[in-house]
Specification:
Protein name: KTSC domain-containing protein
Structural class: alpha+beta
Shape: elongated
Helix content: 40-55%
Largest sheet: 5 strands, antiparallel
Mean pLDDT: 83
Radius of gyration: 20 Å
Keywords: Membrane, Transmembrane, Transmembrane helix
Number of strands: 5
Distance between the termini: 60 Å
Low-confidence stretches: none
Strand content: 15-25%
Number of helices: 3
InterPro entries: KTSC_dom (IPR025309)
C-alpha cells in the first residue's frame, strides 16, 4: 500500500489496499481521511480523473470513516443535524397544536 501523488490542490496523496478495500487520502491541509469498502474501479477513477478534487468530493468523500485523529466525518454529523432538525420541528408543531387547542 504505497502512497500515490495526486495532482490536485485539495488532495496530496492516496493509497489503496485492494484486499481490504481501504482507501486513505491525505488532504492538502495534512489531514489523513480513511475510507472503507471502496471498489477498485473507484480508486482507479480517482487516479485517472482530470479533476481529482471533483471526483473525490462526489464519489469518495461521502464514505469517509474517520480522520487520522479518529474524529467522525461528515456523514455522521449530517445524521445528527437531520435528527436534531426533525426534533425541533416536531416540538414546534406540538407547541403550535397545543396553543390552538389540539391534542
Amino acid at each position: 500500500m504505497d502512497w500515490v501523488n495526486i495532482k490536485s490542490r485539495k488532495i496530496k496523496l492516496a493509497r489503496y489496499n485492494e484486499r481490504s478495500r481501504r482507501l486513505d487520502v491525505t488532504l492538502s491541509n495534512g489531514r489523513v481521511v480513511e475510507h472503507m469498502d471502496i471498489a477498485p474501479h473507484v480508486f482507479r477513477g480517482l487516479l485517472e480523473s482530470p479533476e481529482p478534487s471533483f471526483y473525490y468530493r462526489y464519489y469518495i468523500k461521502p464514505t469517509a470513516v474517520r480522520s487520522a485523529a479518529g474524529h467522525a466525518q461528515a456523514p455522521v454529523r449530517r445524521v445528527v443535524l437531520v435528527v436534531t432538525a426533525f426534533c425541533v420541528v416536531g416540538l414546534a408543531l406540538v407547541l403550535i397544536s397545543s396553543r390552538f387547542g389540539g391534542l
